[in-house]
Fold:
Amino acid sequence: MPGNDDLRGELLSLLGALKNHVAGERDGIIPGSRLSRRGAGRPRPEGALTGDAAGSAAQTKPSHGKGPGSLGAVREELGDCTRCPLHRTRRTLVFGEGSPEARLVFVGEAPGEEEDRQGRPFVGRAGQLLTKIINAMGLAREEVYICNILKCRPPGNRNPQDDEIAACEPFLVKQLEAIDPEVICALGTFAAKTLLRTEAPISSIRGRFHDYHGRKLMPTYHPAYLLRNPDAKRLVWEDVQKIMKIL
Ligand code: SF4
Structure:
């Protein structure tokens, strides 16, 4: 009888959802979230990030509280940073935000005016577009992690300088080591150039995965570029779809 089949299907579906919920609670994750998991025994790829945080290699699972190798420890070490001249002009240090267990991390260039004011990454117009892109991927901002190469705003949003990158990038490396994502999405020329140590234009390296210390890195256009060049949204959508396929 068709009615009985429908009911049976509905019950099976409810049972499946209940099982997922129980598994989610057991693992301390949000049920149904595609990204809020942490594979407890996920092997660290060979050539994973080096740096002080890698000293906690004995850990089989990264800690995200205050312990060594955790995001909290990285934030603590960064402190009220004065390691480069940008500390003199910043209003707020913008460390980054999102899930400390994210499988996907977006890395931009540096905070802008609104980010400097709010102390949060990607909250201006470009940030709102990034949020839309994340949502279109079927995700929430809280499920990914968002940060920048530089934690402080360059005056007038000028390009970051070499000494500023040299001072700040080690903390990004430690953040990535603590989060241990599967995919990094580099937003814009500057982030891609810095992370991949290349002078190649974003137009020639976007759209395919590159190796970043054993992790997959997808360069794509910065949302601020998309605000000026809406036609490029299609290309960014193609790029993030490739990320979605492996998450
Ligand atoms: S940009 Fe980075 S290194 Fe420079 S003051 Fe800010 S946090 Fe420190």
Q: What stands out?
A: The pocket of iron/sulfur cluster is lined by residues 78, 81-84, 86-87, 93, 150-152, 164, 167-168 (CB under 6 Å).
